[in-house]
Amino acid sequence: MKKNYSLSKVLLLDIAIGIVFNCSNAFTQEHKFVAGMGIDFFKDQSYAWVEEPYNHWVDLYPSTAFNLYCHYKTSPYFQFGAYTEFLTMRLDRFSLDEEVIRCNLGISCIGKYPDWYLHWQMGAYFAPGIILPDEHENNAIGLDYGMIAGPALEIKQFGVAFHFHSGYARYVSGGEPEKLRYYNPRFFLKTYYTF
């Protein structure tokens, strides 16, 4: 009698086999770690939705963002790890004219294709974060998440990438405003080193 495997069981088995092959492939690689830094050099005005008590769009003027990351390569095509990001931004409308600092610490993953000097990278990021106002009274806690995409050039152990981070941010606080949501597009110029 034939066993009837459901699609979900086949997909789980496929994912498990892929993880095993990727991990076994990582032991044969010469350089397994990637450390890098990025700087966002496009500072464009954006908008944020501020909920109670304002329920209004406010102008958002971000500063230059700095990004540091360290990844582990599971294969020549895939890497994952941790990153941190720091920037200041100004909220401008009504009584919200203030400078705030945003700090994130989270996880990111990047895949690349083809395995050649010049290639395309795509991935995702997910990071809890905190927004600290000037007065440090009502900190906002939330999440930044989104996609990463862009070209990269690697020569030996050094690399340069131009990444577009397209993501969203949602933050809540115990004070005013209660909630803040904004679209968070970023263009990063990154340099990295594999070791």
Write the layout of secondary structure elements.
Blueprint: H1 7-26, E1 33-40, E2 46-50, E3 56-62, E4 66-75, E5 78-92, E6 98-113, E7 118-133, E8 140-155, E9 158-173, E10 179-183, E11 186-194
Antiparallel strand pairs: 1-4, 1-11, 2-3, 2-10, 3-5, 4-5, 5-6, 6-7, 7-8, 8-9, 9-10, 9-11
Written description of the protein model:
With 195 residues, the chain is mostly beta strands. It has one domain (31-194): Porin (Beta Barrel). The chain is 10% helix and 63% strand. It contains 1 helix and 11 strands, in the order αβββββββββββ. It has one helix at 7-26; strands spanning 33-40, 46-50, 56-62, 66-75, 78-92, 98-113, 118-133, 140-155, 158-173, 179-183, 186-194. Strands 1, 2, 3, 4, 5, 6, 7, 8, 9, 10 and 11 form an 11-stranded antiparallel β-sheet that branches. A hairpin with a 5-residue loop joins strand 5 and strand 6 (98-113). The longest helix has 20 residues, at 7-26. The termini are far apart.
